[in-house]
Design goal:
Layout: E1 9-12, E2 21-29, E3 35-43, H1 46-58, H2 70-80, H3 87-98, H4 113-121, H5 127-146, H6 173-181, H7 188-197, H8 201-206, E4 212-213, E5 218-221, E6 231-234, H9 240-246, E7 254-255, E8 258-259, H10 262-276, H11 283-295, H12 300-307, H13 314-319, H14 324-331
Antiparallel strand pairs: 1-2, 2-3, 4-5, 5-6, 7-8
Helix pairs in contact: 3-5, 4-5, 7-11, 12-14
Length: about 325
């Protein structure tokens, strides 16, 4: 009978052995594509090996703390902890692991801060990748502590390049006024919709007309985070005619009757910027939206809800619930 993927296997070894059957699990594949195994034990019969494999899969936390390697710990963490992460974070952690090849074969209890720091310093990448490696090492350290593999978290001593100061420039009030003067020009309306909703580029391009409620004057969209998914954003009265004029096809922002992909939109965006004499990126609309609401004194929790941000304050996160009317009141503060 074929065993499930990831379950492990029992193989018979060559030669005259007292325990010719080995139960094992695949940890990873080396650069040649050959599997690297974690051996569970050796047994006299295949049935005994399968029983040991079943026991291991039932309680895989029972590891050889003295011998478990960095790669083995990662494999176990990947199985037990990583599924709780978002898809983008999962991809980031797996990519970070590839930058730690120098540590893969080391017994985890022998991994020190300088080993970790060498992985960060030698990755040849910028602050984003360095931060992902640092985050992975912190996760593995916490997991090793949980399993009683180590008693000290050396990842607390490592560092990575800091996040650089943002180069985003919000639109000025004069530029927003200028855009209204150009509103009849092609695709200028889309820039204004960005400026008055705070959606990310990928989010607004994905909004379907079925999720635009002209009666309630709301747009439901958002995809990036748990707090941002399917959030309800009130339509500011000033852009209501622009939104209504675009409702009719499948997507709110369509190009030649089809979904407008980001690369196409960037081309349309550049045309608008050249026509108006401005120099901004679509994401700077989101910065402008936040900045203008802050300047207008909008409620911070309401702004977080509209933008799909998770509130940094636990009390606000857990106990404060903003109604649609309160979100409308925040949006209405935009000039």
């Amino acid at each position: 009978m074929r065993l499930p993927n990831g379950y492990g296997s029992v193989a018979k070894l060559s030669g005259n052995r007292r325990n010719p059957y080995v139960a094992r699990k695949t940890l990873r594949f080396d650069e040649r594509g050959y599997p690297v195994y974690s051996t569970i034990g050796y047994f006299p019969t295949r049935e005994a090996g399968l029983n040991a494999l079943a026991l291991f899969n039932n309680d895989p936390w029972d590891v050889d703390k003295a011998k478990i390697t960095f790669a083995e710990l990662f494999k176990l963490w990947e199985e037990k902890k990583l599924p709780k992460f978002g898809k983008s974070n999962q991809s980031s952690m797996r990519s970070a692991y590839k930058h730690c090849t120098a540590l893969h074969g080391l017994q985890y209890r022998n991994v020190r801060a300088h080993h970790m720091q060498e992985c960060i310093d030698g990755c040849g990448c910028g602050y984003s990748t360095q931060g992902a490696i640092k985050a992975l090492l912190k996760h593995l350290d916490s997991f090793a502590l949980e399993l009683d593999v180590t008693h000290k978290q050396y990842s607390a001593l490592i560092s990575s390049d800091p996040v650089p100061e943002t180069s985003k420039r919000p639109f000025t009030d004069a530029e927003v006024d200028a855009l209204w003067a150009y509103q009849s020009e092609p695709w200028v309306d889309s820039v204004l919709i960005f400026l008055y909703t705070g959606f990310r580029l990928s989010e607004l391009l994905a909004v379907e007309c079925a999720h635009v409620d002209l009666k309630q004057q709301t747009i439901t969209g958002g995809t990036k985070t748990k707090a941002g998914k399917n959030r309800v954003v009130p339509i500011h009265p000033r852009i209501a005619p622009l939104v209504a004029a675009r409702v009719g096809g499948k997507f709110l922002l369509e190009h030649n009757g089809r979904w407008c992909i980001s690369t196409t939109y960037y081309g349309l965006w550049r045309e608008v910027m050249e026509k108006t004499g401005m120099s901004h990126t679509p994401h700077e609309c989101r910065h402008t939206f936040r900045s203008r609401l802050d300047s207008a004194g909008a409620n911070k929790v309401a702004v977080d809800r509209i933008m799909g941000h998770k509130s940094s304050d636990t009390g606000e996160r857990v106990y404060t619930h903003k109604t649609l009317d309160e979100l409308r009141a925040a949006i209405a503060l935009l000039p």
